Amino acid sequence: QSYGQVEGDSASLAELCALLSAISGIALRQDVAITGSVNQAGLVQPVGGVNEKVEGFFDVCADLGRLGTQGAIVPRANVQNLMLREDVVEACAAGRFHVHAVGDVDEAMSLLAGLPAGTRGVDGRYPAGSVNARVEEALERLGAAARSFALDRAPP
Question: pTM above 0.85?
Answer without folding.
Answer: yes
